[in-house]
Amino acid sequence: MDQAKWTAVDEYLCGTLVPADPALDSALAASAQAGLPAINVSPNQGMLLQLIARIHGARRILEIGTLGGYSTIWLARALPADGSLTTLEVNPDYAALAGKNLERAGLTARVTVRVGDAASSLTALAAEQVAPFDLIFIDANKDGCPAYLTGALALSRPGTVIICDNVVREGRVAQAGSRDADVTGVRRYFEMAAADPRLTTTAIQTVGSKGWDGFAISIVSG
What's the domain range around 41? Predict the structure, then answer.
């Protein structure tokens, strides 16, 4: 593995294709100053999420795992004027910072930050009988991925796209005997996705400034 080369290529791609943005840059700076872990998506990954949401014509987006709101900003900007995004965050301090970052980006009217355990929030959203979401982005603790997939499916419709980030774990996902809770959570997610007749799923490995990882993408059928 050559992390220096991967980072250099990401820097070139982002510098060429992803213009600097004051709101996004401020969100990263504020997150770093507050001591949040630097586990947000990279700029080119954020742009990929935004493009997928735009290509899909998403009007309602659900994000599981807000952190400082960096990916939230990318996704919310893909929405039409009457679109909405709900994002779930267990840490109230992170949620408060994300709220400030979203306000700075002018997206407060489109985004709702719900604070609390994500699995419980998903259950609550289903009980509230909210309209199904067009796109769901899962980017939270990986040991919770099986529960998040179950919750996401309860809030989906035929055609909903579900994306789960950080599923390769530097290759550890292929280790059948791993006792790492993050690895076993992702492996169970894959098993559930493969066994569910409603889902068509693939996964892609990625390398870049965030290291060796990848994402899974599913579409819900009728």
Answer: 3-220
pLDDT in tens, 28-76: 999 999 999 999 999 999 999 999 999 999 999 999 999 999 999 999 9
At 179, which CATH number?
3.40.50.150
The number of distinct structural domains making up the chain is: 1
Q: Rounded to two decimals, what is the model's pTM? A: 0.97
Strand partners, 215: 165, 204
Helix axes 92-104, 22-33, angle to 10 degrees: 150
Distance of CA 87 to the CA centre of its chain: 9
With 0-12 CB in 10 A as exposed, 13-18 as middle and 19+ as buried, what is 188?
A: middle
HSE at residue 101, side-chain half, CA atoms within 13 A, is 31
Stretch (H or E) spanning 87: strand 84-89
Q: With contact defined as beta carbons under 8 Å apart, do 123 and 151 qualify?
A: yes
